[in-house]
UniProtKB/TrEMBL annotation:
The keyword Manganese does not apply. GO terms for biological process: proteolysis. It is a multi-pass membrane protein. This is Protease PrsW. Belongs to the protease PrsW family. InterPro entries: Peptidase_PrsW_arch/bac (IPR023596), PrsW (IPR026898).
Length: 231
């Protein structure tokens, strides 16, 4: 059991640490990040119930399972929690913060899913799970957080558009990920490898852009404070 818990936790903690430690200028309070991670874990239960209900009542096809049951429902629940618990919080005070908290919630969700899977299929599948399901959830979280950060610090006229993108893009990517697994047959690895490489490249690029905006905002604020003190 301990080996299963460790194998389930390790990839999520590693990916979260990577994105958390990138924010070297104004690191988020650790207790807030841990709280977001735990909320992601707890989200698994209501999502499973809702997914089961839709599948039983509507008998969803492959496309609907991928883009609605997996993509929309899972990403919407994450987005909803982040928006109402973190987005309006005083600690969300720079663009990169959206990425930190979204990744924390997403990886909390992925970690419990990973634990259930390893419990059923064995620790031998842990490497595959770390490379694909866990990391993909984290990367969906990067993109969700990137656009939440854009919304938070953009003019009011653009905020709604970025909020829409913060949900739409993760849903689209998550649905595509599941669709590849469902219909890829024996060639699914050859479809998944370029998809995951693309996802990593986009996520890294967006995280750097958010971090650069946060650094620029921090230095601008410090400069203004110094000038005000001189006056």
């Amino acid at each position: 059991m301990l080996s299963t818990v460790g194998a389930a936790l390790a990839p999520g903690i590693a990916i979260l640490s990577y994105f958390y430690l990138k924010d070297k200028y104004e690191t988020e309070p650790l207790h807030m990040v841990v709280k977001s991670f735990i909320m992601g874990i707890l989200l698994v239960f209501p999502v499973m119930v809702v997914q089961f209900g839709f599948q039983e009542e509507l008998h969803l096809g492959v496309f609907a399972q991928a883009y609605f049951s997996a993509g929309f429902l899972e990403e919407f629940f994450k987005w909803f929690i982040i928006y109402y618990t973190v987005y309006k919080h005083v600690e969300f005070d720079e663009p990169y913060d959206g990425i930190v908290y979204s990744v924390a919630v997403s990886l909390g969700f992925a970690t419990l899913e990973n634990f259930f899977y390893l419990l059923s299929h064995g620790v031998s599948t842990a490497f595959y799970r770390a490379l694909l399901p866990v990391s993909s959830h984290g990367l969906f979280g990067v993109l969700m957080g990137y656009y939440l950060g854009k919304a938070k610090f953009s003019p009011a006229s653009k905020q709604r558009w970025f909020l829409v993108l913060s949900l739409f893009i993760p849903v689209l990517l998550h649905g595509t990920y599941d669709f590849i697994l469902m219909v890829g047959g024996t060639v699914w690895p050859w479809l998944m490898i370029p998809f995951m490489l693309f996802l990593w490249m986009v996520a890294i690029k967006r995280s750097r852009a958010a971090l650069n905006r946060s650094i620029a905002a921090a230095f601008g604020q410090h400069y203004e404070q110094e000038e005000a003190e001189k006056i």
